[in-house]
Amino acid sequence: MENQALLERFQNYVDAENKIEAKDWMPDGYRKTLVRQIAQHAHSEVVGMLPEGNWITRAPSLRRKTILISKVQDEAGHGLYLYSACETLGVDRDTLIEELLSGKAKYSSIFNYPTVSWADIGAIGWLVDGAAIVNQVSLQRTSYGPYSRAMVRICKEESFHQRQGYEIMIALAKNGNEAQKKMAQEAFNRWWWPSLMMFGPSDAASAHSGQNMAWKIKRHGNDELRQKFVDMTVPQAEYLGLTIPDKDLKWNEATGHYDFGEIDWTEFNEVVKGNGPCNKQRLQTRNKAHDEGAWVREAAMAYARKQQERQAVSAA
Ligand code: 3HC
Predict the structure, then answer these.
(1) Most exposed among 91, 174, 286, 311, judged by the fewest C-beta atoms under 10 Å?
(2) Cβ count within 10 A of residue 151
(3) Which pLDDT does position 2 carry in this prediction?
(4) What is the pLDDT of residues 120-134, one digit of tens each?
(5) For residues 158 and 180, what is the distance between their CA atoms, to the nearest angstrom?
(6) Three-state secondary structure call for residue 258
(7) Ligand 1 shell residues, CB under 6 Å
(8) Per residue in 33-87, pLDDT tens?
(9) E strand or H helix at 250
(10) What's the CA-to-centroid distance between 109 and ligand 1, angstroms?
(11) Rounded Cα distance, 204 and 41, in Å
(12) What is the DSSP letter of 275?
């Protein structure tokens, strides 16, 4: 039973827009939901490297190849920032990695869809990183200090990710030949709805939104961020000459937002449960990379041990 006075002091401190740091007292539930969310976020960054990594060797030019390598490398770095932020809450990184590799841990559903053509790489940068920016700009103001600071750093790189994706879509949808325009539209059709699902279930169905908003972990609800993403993305699609794959999408003058159709939550839940098009393949690839990278971890640990021995000898 947590001390009521401590809880009240914690809530007042958060309500006054202070950042909670690792050494501060925090409710067990605050720590628990942060470990859950930051770990899933880190896992998403790492698994998110796979769909795009799949096209590095098939990029249409050296320029595109170097941009894609740089983006995928950034995602790995985002994963490391976030695992580090999670470790400040007292969890062990090896445990987090094990939970991902065993299929126990969640990561964003979006990364369980296939990248069928080069246009998917454009659609991912434009839509997936675009949605991530909407979510992560909001998370820059999260009440947990290490997470907030990781978001500030990550958001700087995300804007490059989104712009390079949109540039690919301009090359194909706006300036491309008929076949390339068709390829861009097909990719848009594949990634539009899964991108809306990235923001999570509706707030009414959200298990965590209420408490996480009270603790200022979440600064905006899932629906609000989803709507913001739709409102900013529809004009971008129209500029590309793409058709939004939603017959119910229309501008609502009264609300000043786009109304859009019902999300297929059955599809969302199936993908989250592990039954998406690429769930099994993503975990197999992750496990294979982890096994093949064992020698790197062993060499790094051996080097660290040697360094410690040398320091111990020189200190003696
Ligand atoms: N995929 C998989 N699971 C999802 C999900 C999604 N798109 N959206 C929600 N869920 C899960 C939640 O994890 C939760 O499950 P749990 O209780 O087992 O953890 C359940 O569905 C209920 O959802 P809630 O909305 O109640 O959960 P949250 O309050 O955690 O909100 C969230 C979900 C908005 C995704 C929030 O966790 C969040 O903001 N996370 C940080 C951002 C993030 O993880 N983004 C993922 C993509 S990272 C990325 O895009 C990288 C970029 O570089 C490409």
Answers:
(1) 311
(2) 24
(3) 61
(4) 999 999 999 999 999
(5) 26
(6) strand
(7) 36-37, 40-41, 44-45, 48, 75, 78, 106, 108-109, 128-129, 132, 135, 158, 197-201, 206-209, 212, 218, 222, 272
(8) 999 999 999 999 999 999 999 999 999 999 999 999 999 999 999 999 999 999 9
(9) strand 250-252
(10) 8
(11) 22
(12) I
